Amino acid sequence: xxxxxxxxxxxxxxxxxxxxxxxxxxxxxxxxxxxxxxxxxxxxxxxxxxxxxxxxxxxxxxxxxxxxxxxxxxxxxxxxxxxxxxxxxxxxxxxxxxxxxxxxxxxxxxxxxxxxxxxxxxxxxxxxxxxxxxxxxxxxxxx
Length: 143
Prior knowledge:
Blueprint: H1 4-22, E1 26-33, E2 40-47, E3 80-86, E4 91-97, H2 112-120, H3 126-135
């Protein structure tokens, strides 16, 4: 019989395949057992750009700690994937809801040379790491 951990792995594998197909980012939201059937687990994922998933912004009054990065564009897309895994029957059902096919999230990555530099200088304060990255001409593209 499958256990909870392998159920989570199955759900993650399904999400990975859906993400590869639609290029949207899906974030784990919650996991629940069915009240009717204890052998059923429901995994819920939400579109990373859903407007109701945005974190509340807070203002930092220290200008040194402020950054100029723009928040991710949000949409009222109701994007949600429900994956129900029946452990006893060994079947899975997948329901995808995405009411608006909005623009895809902008890919933001950190170059490997920057990651390596940070790993090699992990004992420094973040402010010092950033200053040295700038000194060495490595564009960290972070604030």
